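Tutorial, part two.
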Amino acid sequence: RRPLHIAVHKASQDVITTLFHKYPQAAKERMEDGRLPIEVCAKNKASDGLMLALYKADPKSRVEGLLFLGIVLSNGSLDDVVLAVLQAYPEAAKETFSTKSDVRILPLHIAHEETRSEEVKKALLDAYPDAKEVENPFKTTLRLHKLLEDSATNDDVLDLINNYPDAVGKRGRDGRRPLHIALMHKASQDVTSELFYAYPQ
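Running the prediction step on this input gives:
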């Protein structure tokens, strides 16, 4: 096992940074569990400086099937880190996330959901202009799922169903459809009936 691979699990960020600079090649090598060092650092919310250094060591790496861009957009990394990743790999702006879902989650959608800066949103849109034509599932399908999970009022749920009826038949990131969630959270008969008749399959 590489010292860097051991350090990312328990050592301080100063130690991880020192080991990375001594053995930068280790950043590109997968650990015993199949993950890259950057994946563990991302999960542990490492500093932007360390994350960016690890990313630059292997800019084409994927993190559990998702491009690193998705992680730095959603884990609170500074705009400079996001923009550096996007500059290194602009094709990442076209990547979609969530394999179990029937929806397309683009980096631009994550940027809006995480209220990233206008500079970041513009850079993502410049890299993939067609993104503006793709439905933002955080406002439709995934919004419906969240309302059901939070036991929202009938009016809120029914309004969303009426405005986005296609969302009724789509699975979310966990593979469930809205009706399954409604039954699990004991939604009202009005809501469950509407979901059933809108998508009876």
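The first strand starts at residue 62 and ends at 63. In part three we will examine how such features are distributed along the chain.
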